[in-house]
Amino acid sequence: MPTHLSGTPQEIRALDTFIKLTRCTQALQARLSDRASIDDLTPSQFAVLEALYHLGSLTQGEVSAKLLKSVSNITTVIDNLEREQYVRRERCAQDRRVIHVHLTESGRAKIEAVLPRHVAALVAEMDVLSDSELETLGVLCRKLGKGKEGAE
């Protein structure tokens, strides 16, 4: 649905593109949710497990920064993952304010079971685009995500 804004061509183009990008992301997330590719995990829980699986133990602050989520949101997500025994927390001996998050064996088993199904669902959803289009989309998303500072 294009914008009905009466503005400059640049404003209309920017808003219209933002609407398309937002709707695309929401529609893709909804289809992935329908596929239940991440089992009973929330997208945030999946993201935390996946980050720990690929990057190793991280501090809560590093998890927050990596996933672009607030520290308070990540704390809640990690609380729930810890309750399920997928992660464990450990305070840093040198700086008690720092909390390291570690993947447990149960957490490793969960992400190893879920990740292949999720990747397969992503591949199926992205199949509407050619390899070249996927490459272009990736480049454009990275450029937009970095903003003007990253584009220079």
Structural commentary:
- The protein is mainly alpha-helical and 152 residues long.
- It has six helices and three strands.
- Strands 1-3-2 form a three-stranded antiparallel β-sheet.
- Helix 3 crosses helix 4.
- The model has no long low-confidence stretch (mean pLDDT 92).
The whole-angstrom Rg is 19 Å
CATH topology of the largest domain: Arc Repressor Mutant, subunit A
User: What kind of oligomer do you see?
Assistant: single chain
Beta-strand fraction estimate:
5-15%
Largest sheet: 3 strands, antiparallel
Q: Topology of this protein?
A:
Blueprint: H1 9-35, H2 43-55, E1 58-59, H3 60-67, H4 71-83, E2 87-91, E3 99-103, H5 105-126, H6 131-151
Antiparallel strand pairs: 1-3, 2-3
Question: Quick recap of the structure?
Answer:
The protein has helices spanning 9-35, 43-55, 60-67, 71-83, 105-126, 131-151, and strands at residues 58-59, 87-91, 99-103. The protein has 152 residues and is mainly alpha-helical. Helix 1 (9-35) crosses helix 5 (105-126), helix 2 packs across helix 5 (105-126) and helix 3 packs across helix 4 (71-83).
Q: What descriptive keywords fit this protein?
A:
152 residues; mainly alpha; 2 domains; three-stranded antiparallel beta sheet; 3 strands; 68% helix; globular
